Amino acid sequence: MSRPPAKPPQTRTAWRPPGRWAAFLHNLFSGRCRFCQARSLACPLCPGCREDLPWISAACERCGLPLASGEPLCAGCRTAPPPLDRTRVIWTYSDGVDDLIRAFKLHEDLAAGRLLTELAAEALHQRRTPCQGPLVPMPLHPTRYRRRGFNQSALIAGWLGPPVASSLIRRHRYTAPQRGQTAADRRTNLHGAFRLQRPPPPAVTLVDDVVTTGASLAAVADCLRQGGVKRIEVIALARAI
Fold first, then answer.
1. pLDDT of 222-231, one tens digit each?
2. Which domains, from first to last, does the chain contain?
3. CA-CA distance, 95 to 151, in Å (whole number)?
């Protein structure tokens, strides 16, 4: 008996357009820009504050580092490329985006995270940059998940998705917080921290809130490569520089 043909990898052809319901509720109850408090009829940010966000217009294709040279790859990725095929980051981690992400991640301000995700979805849609495979949020260890109460990357993926594969990979070893560590210490800290839960698809897109040194993304990508994934892309809201 012949086997059925293998399913082709999932391909996202268009990002979910920015939802207007959250913006409508924001304007209904406040009607003011989140940054400058000016009245805003379009979205929770007035046009001026939205334009002033630290948008990344040109970046390294592999790690997302902003580049002024116009080259496709940064010097680091030319000499020691990460296990990633493409990284797309929307903003630098500065000028108000950092405040919104901290409010979202550390103070349970889900509206801040949703706002950034809506703007990111619109930017990705305008850039016409489809990606293959499901969205895979960066996993949190269960201990950290219980303390925080949510996984910010999973929420971002859910707002961007579908398809989303939240349970594909698990962070099975608790590690010290990455903040304040050097790049080398981060890589050592994350060695063997992730484990696949089931056979992965041939292509995936990792989703994260902030890319710092890229050590966490590289550790997850290494685990996925060992499981047979051929193409790994990244979408993140912001990039620390």
1. 999 999 999 9
2. 17-52 (no CATH), 55-239 (3.40.50)
3. 24
